[in-house]
């Protein structure tokens, strides 16, 4: 289970301070709570951050618990492969959770084995349900430490149904690339306000300048303490997520509507280009984050809480950006829980929503105007198939083929139709990207 090098690696995670006392045990308990919440459903991990076991921890221990849970999620298939070789009869989930959490520490986060094993045994001891398995926990973990984990396969970390889909869509070599990308924790990408020098931001944050001028940094911790945060010089946005607004090519003074805008990375790009932007979203909570981002960066947009397809407004626009709600399977590097939370039926359900939003977005585009459609999904039904059907229904629109180098996308992302299909395995040597489907359409009549 050795790491393959894939670009900048985040620095080591800070370990809980006091191994002798129960503090380390509490952090591991919280990691198990987070892991199981993420396995239970969409939004589970975020919701669990407010559970007592997690929220009561001091900040560094909470960060450690989250890092352990994320590592366990990213490598769950491999961890279970290792455990299944040593567990004759499946122990209860609570025992498996203790073992998963311990292996995420030793195999991924490089926590010293004595700390991971002793806290796992203490955890097992504390609960009457897991106490009978205390010796098993000790024996399994010590056995792995002594004899090594054995061979594992990156593809085991992907749910079978998604691996089968991606194999059928992208082929076996691409599937291997996706599986390798899914094991790694991504760095943080920053989009910069116009006029801010990427090289100096990269310098201050020990980062590197990516194509098209975003900055990638392996720094961790509270963003609010990073240089440039307070004065709004940058905002966090994956390098791939910055491509759709570039493809829309916003110009100063244009009227542009961002149909599904929150938390606002793309709205900020459009506003920073000098466009007059209306930002719609159905979620008032998420729009609060957009408003905070606008305030911090001193950029402006008209913000409207509404389902975009029901927006009662007569205006036509020079350009419309539709970053539609989707399964988000392309974001598995940042949100490994998405792989567990997404169910096969979600793909068709969300494709229906996208269909409705696309038709509503098209109605807002003035003749001669532009429409950019994007989703951070790897599923064809939400991307290519959606586009083919839209163009059939809407003969007034034509694809305006993308030029990847002009918009900061990998060349290999260009499809024969002129759309962009960005895979998380692309630019692996730079540390990868989120997966996106992006198409620009021009209204020709
Ligand atoms: C992929 S996110 C948008 C991310 C955003 N464009 C950015 O760059 O930060 C999708 C958004 O669509 C919103 N949404 C879902 N259904 C919607 C609808 N019918 N009308 C407007 N917004 C919707 C969700 O609340 C969510 O904020």
UniProtKB/TrEMBL annotation:
Fetch the Gene3D superfamilies from UniProt. Answer: NusB-like, Vaccinia Virus protein VP39
Q: Does the keyword Methyltransferase apply?
A: yes
The record's InterPro entries line, in alphabetical order, gives:
MeTrfase_RsmB-F_NOP2_cat (IPR049560), MeTrfase_RsmB-F_NOP2_dom (IPR001678), NusB-like_sf (IPR035926), NusB_RsmB_TIM44 (IPR006027), RCMT (IPR023267), RsmB/NOL1/NOP2-like_CS (IPR018314), SAM-dependent_MTases_sf (IPR029063)
Q: What UniProt keywords apply to this chain's record, in alphabetical order? A: Methyltransferase, RNA-binding, S-adenosyl-L-methionine, Transferase
Molecular function (Gene Ontology), one example = RNA binding
Active-site residues per Swiss-Prot or TrEMBL entry: 376 (nucleophile)
Q: Which GO terms describe its biological process?
A: regulation of DNA-templated transcription; RNA methylation
Residues annotated as binding S-adenosyl-L-methionine are 260-266, 281, 323
Does this entry carry the keyword S-adenosyl-L-methionine? yes
Q: Where is this region: Disordered?
A: 1-20
Domain SAM-dependent MTase RsmB/NOP-type residues, every copy:
162-444
- Which Enzyme Commission number(s) are listed? 2.1.1.176
- Tell me the protein family, please: Belongs to the class I-like SAM-binding methyltransferase superfamily. RsmB/NOP family.
What protein name applies here? 16S rRNA (Cytosine967-C5)-methyltransferase
Recite the lineage of the species. Bacteria, Pseudomonadati, Pseudomonadota, Alphaproteobacteria, Caulobacterales
């Amino acid at each position: 289970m050795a790491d393959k090098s894939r670009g900048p690696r985040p620095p080591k995670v800070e370990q809980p301070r006091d191994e002798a006392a129960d503090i380390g045990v509490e952090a591991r308990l919280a990691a198990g709570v987070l892991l199981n919440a993420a396995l239970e459903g969409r939004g589970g991990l975020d919701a669990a951050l407010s559970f007592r076991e997690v929220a009561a921890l001091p900040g560094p221990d909470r960060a450690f618990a989250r890092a352990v849970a994320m590592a366990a999620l990213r490598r769950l298939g491999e961890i279970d492969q290792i455990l299944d070789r040593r567990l004759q009869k499946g122990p209860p989930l609570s025992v498996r959770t203790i073992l998963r959490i311990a292996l995420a520490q030793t195999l991924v986060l490089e926590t010293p084995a004595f700390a991971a094993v002793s806290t796992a045994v203490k955890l097992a001891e504390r609960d009457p349900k897991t106490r009978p398995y205390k010796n098993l926990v000790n024996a399994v973990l010590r056995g792995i430490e002594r004899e090594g984990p054995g061979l594992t396969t990156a593809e085991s970390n992907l749910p079978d149904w998604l691996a089968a889909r991606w194999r059928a869509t992208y082929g076996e070599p691409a599937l291997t690339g996706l599986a390798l990308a899914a094991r790694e924790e991504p760095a943080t990408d920053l989009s910069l306000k116009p006029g801010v020098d990427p090289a100096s931001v990269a310098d201050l944050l020990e980062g590197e300048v990516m194509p098209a001028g975003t900055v990638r940094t392996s720094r961790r911790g509270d963003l609010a303490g990073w240089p440039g945060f307070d004065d709004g010089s940058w905002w966090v946005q994956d390098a791939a997520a910055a491509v759709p607004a570039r493809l829309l090519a916003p110009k100063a003074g244009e009227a542009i509507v961002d149909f599904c805008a929150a938390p606002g990375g793309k709205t900020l790009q459009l506003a920073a280009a000098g466009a007059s932007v209306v930002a719609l979203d159905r979620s008032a909570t998420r729009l609060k984050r957009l408003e905070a981002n606008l305030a911090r960066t001193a950029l402006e947009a008209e913000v409207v809480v509404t389902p975009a397809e029901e927006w009662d407004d007569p205006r036509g626009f020079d350009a419309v950006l539709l970053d539609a709600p989707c399964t988000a399977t392309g974001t598995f590097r940042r949100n490994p829980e998405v792989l567990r939370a997404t169910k096969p039926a979600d793909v068709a359900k969300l494709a229906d929503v996208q269909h409705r939003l696309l038709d509503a977005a098209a109605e807002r585009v003035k003749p001669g105007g532009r429409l950019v459609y994007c989703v951070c999904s790897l599923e064809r039904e939400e991307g290519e198939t959606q586009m083919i059907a839209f163009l059939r229904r809407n003969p007034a629109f034509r694809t305006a083929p993308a030029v990847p180098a002009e918009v900061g996308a990998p060349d290999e992302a260009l499809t024969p139709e002129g759309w962009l299909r960005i895979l998380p395995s692309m630019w692996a040597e730079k540390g990868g990207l989120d997966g996106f489907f992006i198409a620009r359409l021009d209204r020709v009549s």
